[in-house]
Design goal:
3 strands; about 100 residues; alpha+beta; 5 helices; Arc Repressor Mutant, subunit A; about 15% strand; about 65% helix
Length: about 100
């Protein structure tokens, strides 16, 4: 039983770790409206495509986004939109602590 709980919490911690970067939070919020090409995400984030791709890999590994190939480009979408509820909660905490 304890091992099962520990595995559960390890998985949750991995998701939190994936969320723990401002660029990844920006990417997730960019994906809340629609599936988006990695080239558009690059423009929104303002980093080079390899950096954006590395962030997307972290998010994909955590199960937060999924990719679909179209020609030479990958299009990303949120797989867990409720994660944005968590980021809104954090934003509320930040406003209270100011």
């Amino acid at each position: 039983m304890k091992q099962d709980l520990k595995k559960l919490y390890e998985g949750q911690a991995a998701v939190l770790k994936a969320l723990a970067h401002p660029t990844r939070l920006l990417i997730l919020n960019s994906l809340k409206k629609k599936e988006t090409c990695v080239c558009e995400l690059r423009d929104q984030v303002g980093d080079d495509i390899s950096t954006v791709s590395k962030h997307l890999l972290v998010l994909k590994t955590a199960g937060l986004v999924a990719a679909r190939r179209e020609g030479n480009w990958l299009h990303y979408r949120l797989t867990c939109p409720c994660v944005l509820d968590f980021t809104r909660c954090l934003a509320g905490l930040e406003r209270k602590n100011v």
